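step: validate -> pass
step: tokenize input -> pass
step: predict -> running
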Amino acid sequence: MHNVCWATPLYAYLRMCNASTLPKVVLDCGAGGSEPPLSLFSQFGYKIYGVEIAENSLMESRKFGFEHQVDLQIVKGDMRSMPFPDAYFSFVYSYNAIDFMTKPDIAVSMSEITRVLRQDGLCYVNFLSVDDQETWEPFCNSGPAYSLLKSETFAHFEDDEADVYFKNYVLLRKEKRLTDKLFEGRVLKRAEIDYIAKIK
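step: predict -> pass
step: emit ->
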């Protein structure tokens, strides 16, 4: 039985990847968690890899892989210095992960994504918008974002602020998504900016 991926924006990215003639080799940056999106790509015949800095998230993804008999190939590592050679991947994405870092570290991570992508490769990255109402609380001092990444809160971006990371790309899709989220009896406005781009 196929697993349904909860990360719905990745389906649009997957359609673009499927239309590409590049080899099906994909990397997930921030790949851990109890429902890793890499399982979606494995169902379409991709050679899948992931990098994850948080030990707990890494263990959750390995448990998922074992239970669903999927070899996710997620390694412990840091997307600011990824353990992969230049131009190794046709497709690289980071879903709901890059915004845990400080903006200087996001710039480094975006450089790393560019480094490991081959020519004409596709990337997907989503950023939190300044219009988001949910993610302004400071991180817990004992949590992985604070202890591993030295971040105090999520990074938030103005509508065009993240464009600077895509100077070496052709933008294929940019979308600001505004959704209502019901949480503890309150409706919160979730606001994210998605990019899908092809490296030049």
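step: describe -> Residues 180 and 186 are 10 Å apart (CA to CA).
step: cleanup -> pass
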